[in-house]
What does this fold into?
Amino acid sequence: MNGLSMRGMEKSFGAVRVLDGVDFDVRPGEVHALLGMNGAGKSTLMNILAGAIPPDAGTITIDGTIYTFSSPREAKQAGIGLVVQEVDTALFPGLPIYENVAADEFVHVKQRPIRSLRQEKERAAALLRRVGLSLPPTKLVRDCSLHEKQLIVLAKVLSSNARYIILDEPTAALSEAETRRLFAIIDELKQQGVGFIYISHKLKEVQEIADRLTILRDGRVVYHGGARSLPLEDIVLHMTGTKRTAAAKQARTYRSDIAFAARGMLIDKTGTTVDLYAHRGEIVGIAGLVGAGKTELAESLIAHRNTSGEWEIDGRRYVFSSPYEAIDAGLCLIPEERRKQGLFLPESVKTNLTVRLLSRLSRWQWISWAKEAAEADGLVRSLGVHPPSSTTVVRHLSGGNQQKVVIGKWLNTNARVFLFDEPTKGIDVHAKQEVFSIIRSLADEGKTVLYFSSEFQELLDICDTIYVMVDGRLLARLPAAELTYEQLVYYCSGGEIDEPAGRFRAAVEKSGAVHS
Amino acid sequence: MSQPAVSAPPSKKAAPFILEFLYKHGTLLAILAVIAYFGLTQDRFFTYENFSDILRSISIVTLVAIGITFSLIVDGFDLSVGSTVSLATIASAAALVLYRQEIFVTLLVPLLLGIAVGLLNSLLIVKFKLPDLLATLATMYAINGVQLTYTKGFSIYNDMPLPDGGTAPGKFIPSFLFIGQGELFGVPFSVLLMLFVVIAAHLFLTYTKPGRLFYLTGENREAARLSGIPVNRYRTYAYVISGFFAALGGIVLASRIGTGQVSAGASLLMDSVAAAYIGFSVFGAGKPNVIGTLFGSILMGVLLNGLTMMNVPYYAQDIIKGAILVGALALSHWQKK
It folds into this structure.
């Protein structure tokens, strides 16, 4: 049989069953999209196919031969190619393109000691033509754009005669025009008989490029079939599963005056500008997929990144050029990379908590250790840090307790606008609830909260208002109470927002009718 | 799915008690062992003159090493201190001998030059974002070249002949020589100066707000920046302080030897870097600290004094210095793991 097929794939990590009998196949010359929410099992399935992890059960057949891969190298030899999302990790920036394209052969093939540079360059040039790149093969990879680098990785994959190529979020960092070009090249390679496995959260693009779809949910295949026949709304429903009942949410109220606004805020990565505002006491979510530019926006708002634009806090206008100024004016950021950006790991809980309070705790620059300890102990108690001691070294705390310390250092300061970037990342359910209650009480005190996250359910649970962020732009500002989980996933995956509730509601009812 | 990031408790059990003890108190034990060894084998070691000599040389190394400690605290490095010492030595000698200046200008000029070198370093490192090692390597060479060019390679001393045929108008005045040669209550003045600086710097770094912010800047620059600490300002201060203390060391050196010798500070770089790194481990601090630096330079000073007494030539001493620095680095690296 011609084609690649995976049958009955199973994989568990500890007690967690990640893949539960998944069937998946790709024919030569088609694009088969693999969809699912985070944790659905996509990565695990692809890691098995690429030889990075062994399955517990199941068979992989490629063009009639059954394979058991014990290393990525064997998968490569069997004709599997992988274009990773972070293309920079697959390239040597200081080497020219042709050496990058041939790099795998240096490593794996015992060659004659003397290489023919001319042959190598000609071969690279031919491969570059195949992927539609007209660059001199001697150009250094670090001088290439992201889009070019991606195509170089594709050329590299083709050079090892891959017949089935996994594309992991290939358009995550591409512009509209570059996406078009990539699709044209995929079409071209399809004609030559290459099969693609296409992983993406951008559902609009998936509909456009894919021939068939497989949707995974909780380690099982929940949909399998043609791509064009299935409406976007139904894809989202398959991905998210049973319609979730909105958690009973206390109605929060907030003031009507605008406490924080940013105008023309530049996001350097995407080159886009953003306008946003928040009322006093409002919890405003910024919802977007990974890579939508949320962290970049948060770090621009605190002036940690190069940016331009105008800030307004409590009616006063500012232009900040460093976090020092922004923090002085009442902003603060709880960063995504807690250990790298938020904590002084070798220091005690006390030192971490009082970093912003030293002026108040010292006289003539001399820190009063008694006052400092009292202040820190008070914060440790009110935050519920465990162990309840301010002398613990923060390196030894759990993720959730570390997060409380990162938040805690701002509680007794003049900070009025709190930016939380993925604050629940890597912390357990209990700690998550504690972080939420801290955020709610901050807002109840009249502080303004901006909550950046790709955890859509959490956004709906905690926020009053949600901005939808796609590719570095804020597309809509919607009241959280009127949003459903499916809608939010739909919008953030590139769905149209023209009629916020109506269209999707209709779709929900329609597919509900089909199921019943 | 992300799992709760519960970090493992410190693996104290993995490191046997004896290793832990050696790490914390190894430097002190080494100092005692070295003193005992030289005391037993060298007759002249336990004499007042010799101890006073050791302390005088330690005082210079310590001053320079405290500057390096500041640059290490902000996670930087300053290779140019040796050249700054030379520059300050020449500057104070020139002020006295060639320009007949009194004590005030003689002290002010080298200190200002030291601060200027620090500002230059921070311009390169903080503003132009050059790697600290390379930037200060460059200033180290350039500054050394400056003092050699100014003196045309000749030392500056009392009654030196001038190119125009006369002799130099000024001389090393007693008030200046007191810094490196004088004594108060039977203790060399330079040692008192060193103790004062050590105590002041220790109190500053341990008990004051700016001291705390120096450490936080070095421990995690990004977190410090996001906590609203003006990290670039503190890094600049650190290099300026480093330049200042190197210049102070240069003044004491000029006063001690009573001449302005060219490139007199070159050998101080290695001694003070080793002292600062040995200081990481003293009392198990695990980070740069002034008290540790003092003990580090005591170890270096005693060792070099004893080796000189044993007639180990100065070039062979360099082998031992290098070995000690490697040992100190290995120890501080081991502690981090």
User: Anything to note?
Assistant: The interface with chain B takes residues 16, 39, 302, 304, 322-324, 327-328, 333, 335, 340-347, 351, 355-356, 358-359, 362, 365-367, 369, 395-400, 402, 409, 425-428, 431 of chain A (CB under 8 Å). The mean pLDDT of chain A is 86. Chain A has four domains: 1-79+163-242, 89-162, 258-330+414-515, 341-413.
